[in-house]
Amino acid sequence: MAWQILAIVVIVGVTIVLFMRDERRRKSDLALARAAQYYARVPYQPHAWAPLPEPSRPRRRTGGLSETQRSALRRLAAK
Known about the structure:
mainly alpha; 2 helices; elongated; 66% helix; 79 residues; single chain
């Protein structure tokens, strides 16, 4: 019983740590994309400044399921 509670705590802890890491990476990717967009379009002369369009957001990272995983889930749902 105690090892099961410990396992649950470890799984929850790892999940939270991975979530926080992914969110931090997503925010840093967005900041990097904005900086790259700015420096790619900044004019050479400082007095010739023009407003820049909003940079596009980086593509959303999705893991998705493989075809094998989808078929297994369909079989489970059909039962």
